[in-house]
Amino acid sequence: MTFISVFLLLLASQVVNQPVWNNPGKGCSIFTIRFADKVFFCGNLDHPNPDGYIRFLPNSAEGFGGIIHGYLAKTNNRSWIAFEGGINEKGLAFDTNGLPNAFMNSHPEKPYSWGNENFWYLLLRKCSNAKDAINIAKKFNFGNSMNFQVHVADPSGDAVIISPGDSGELSFTRKEPGVRFLVSTNRNNANPAHGHGKYPCKRHVTISHMLGEIENEKNVSNEYLMSVLDSVHFERASYNTIYSYLCDLRKGLFFLYYFHQFDEVVVLDLKKELKSSERTVKIADLVSQETRDRASKEYQEYKRLEKEKNKDK
After folding, report:
1. Residue 250 CA to chain centroid, in angstroms?
2. Which of 21, 36, 106, 259 could make an SS bond with 3 (beta carbons 3.0 to 4.6 A apart)?
3. What fold is seen in the domain 29-311?
4. What number is the average pLDDT over the span 213-233?
């Protein structure tokens, strides 16, 4: 997951065509797993701003319905909700990992990826599978630099990571046939030398190891996949996993966990949720007061400890 605003046109308070990466963080973990008849897309959104949001977009003339999720972005004395991942009614899911800036060959003859019908918006509204996502990505101009990669998966278990390639063109890392999972963190899957932190990424190694331990379909449980996310979550004074999720791509279910509090889960059924009107909800408002209080207590304790540590310097 990442630090990029990708649905700038969906809220009137947002500023059009301004990509946001307001923290050079090194978090966010995403994975796709298919085992027998089960296909899941899962992730942690790690960010310094603690407020996460989810938006419900019913089916319309613009395309498929779905939900998008993100965080409260703040920069230049402004704040707005920055959405960067989602799942639509066809079971296509996507999310974004932050990367260091990479040079790209600009293609001004193509529509700009941050334009009115931007790449991420069309992922949600027009794509039903990973192949659609690849075809749409090829039609966009991503400018002369790129500081992210996009992980996409569909109910068939097909998955692709769209990232900046060495040549300055888009690169597409596919989940190979027969391979059960695909993982992305904050290193470029097409070029592992390009990324945040040391190589190999410890979170990538941990997730891959845990998914590789799965021996049968029964092991692909919500509890186990949640434990994978739990094993790589962040918690500290200035940087946290503000929410985690599991998407059951075949059943259209979205399992949501608030602020690395894995004792409570919010279950969203897309078929039911998308029958209501378009709306935006703060993730904290979807969980119990007890879970909010527990998260707040942990967060404030980390801030207190950090303040004391800084006093001693």
Report:
1. 19
2. 21
3. Penicillin V Acylase; Chain A (3.60.60)
4. 96
pLDDT in tens, 107-120: 999 999 988 788 99
Q: Cβ(254)–Cβ(67) under 8 Å?
A: yes
Q: How many CB atoms lie within 10 A of CB 183?
A: 24
Q: Within 13 Å and on the Cβ side, how many CA atoms surround 249?
A: 29
As beta bridge partners, residue 40 has 33, 248
**Residues 263-301 pLDDT 10s:** 999 999 999 999 999 999 999 999 999 999 999 999 999
Question: Burial letters for 97-112: b for 16+ Cβ neighbours within 10 Å, e otherwise?
Answer: bbbeebebeebeeebb
Q: What is the pLDDT of residues 135-145, one digit of tens each?
A: 999 999 999 99
Please say whether the beta carbons of 157 and 175 come within 8 A.
yes
The first and second tokens of residue 31, run together, are 């994975």
Q: Is the peptide bond before 200 cis (omega within 30 degrees of 0)?
A: yes
Q: Is it the case that residue 38 has pLDDT exceeding 90?
A: yes
Q: Is 82 exposed, middle or buried (CB count within 10 Å of its CB: 0-12, 13-18, 19+)?
A: buried
Q: For residue 291, give the amino acid letter.
A: T
Pairing relation of β-strands 191-195 and 187-188?
A: antiparallel
Sign, CA torsion 119/160/219/258: negative
Please state, in angstroms and rounded to a whole number, the distance separating the CA atoms of residues 149 and 146.
8
How much is the pTM?
A: 0.91
> What long-range pairs does 139-142 form, CB within 8 A, spacing at least 24?
139/110, 139/111, 140/110, 140/111, 140/112, 140/113, 141/106, 141/107, 141/108, 141/109, 141/110, 141/111, 141/112, 141/113, 142/104, 142/113, 142/170
Helix (H, G, I), strand (E, B) or coil at 119: helix
Strand pairing category for 170-174 and 159-164: antiparallel
Structure confidence at residue 74 (pLDDT): 80
The Cα-based distances of 140 to 6, 115, 136, 304 in angstroms read 14, 10, 7, 46
